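Hey, quick one: can you model this chain's 3D structure?
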Amino acid sequence: MRRMRRLALMRGAHCLRLASLFAVCLAPLGSVCAEPSVLPTLLITGPGDSGHGVDVALDATGQYSLDRRALEHFGGPTGHLTDVLGILPNVQFGESAQEAERLYDLRPASISISGGRPYDNTFILDGVSIDSRLDPAGNAHPTAVNDVPGHDQALFVDLDLVEEIKVFDSNVPAAYSGFTGGVVDARTRRAGLSPQTRLRYSTTRGDWVNYHVITARPSAYEPDPEPPAPPEFKRERLGLSHSRPLGEASSLVTSFNRSYSKTPDILLGQSAHRTQESYNALVKYSLPVGPAYWDTSLAVAPFRSTNFISNAKDSDFTLRGGGFTVSSALEWETGHHEGRLRLGLGMSENSRRAPRHFYEWETPQPQLGPPSRSCEQPRRRLRRPRQTPT
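Sure thing. Here's the predicted structure for all 390 residues.
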């Protein structure tokens, strides 16, 4: 199976100071041990172009914090929220995360935190849960006619909208609830002291990718396995954001992102395409109120894919997902204490729109046995139509 391995290059200088103190006693019994010797400090640095490393803050209570600088260095080209979490030790991806099909799939890969199941985790955006309640463990095939594929995340948030991510793999605070695994808490961006506009565009194609095939070593009596053909696809990602201060203290952030992928296929001898589209829009207003800070944000993240059933006429259907969140929060710090008041609302959907009827055609078979069903060489008689959920 073809797999694409991505290597994250760590920039900046990192140092590790090692100091050891040893007391060695080799004298006969009853004698006094020699004075302990102190080893010199060993400084280990890594190459970097800026002279400053990118750190991932680790708390002794099991909390990891990734700021905006770390997200830009370690975030993948897909913009998925979970891609950057692969650098953390207690976050694991499934085997399907390295398959070639992930190159054009706009749905983020599911993760396991400390060995838990993907749907045991909770994902939070600006204090509002974006966990999917609509069959988060569903593993139905996208072309199934009697089921809708689910996902553990209700909203597929683009990484450009995020300022900071906190991950808890153990000792989760009591402020979080409604889960049995880990916590991924994401906070959207705030505006800086000066206006800023950013435009981002990236694209890739199937013939632009270098594949590394990893296969088991065959025995001397077996031929080398034939590697699978690389998929043909086109993928694009576009992002536009603008932030500016309003007056002396307040600020506004607006952002829009679109991801698109297209995969060609053959449908009854004609060329057809399977497509996926994911949109992200954010509007956030921030205002200092004395020692506190008031943030109000609206995030919209719809998802849409068009697909069809191979070798079936008039089988086009559309899968829709995603939703929106609205959040308003007041945060303050006084001495060694911090407080937070938050009001939020979220909505998500997971639906399938398809023709009302799905017709099954019977075909004669030359061999003995019951007739099989397909969409090639149809007979004149139709079976009773079967309704599919819409």
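One thing worth noting: Residues 361-390 form one domain.
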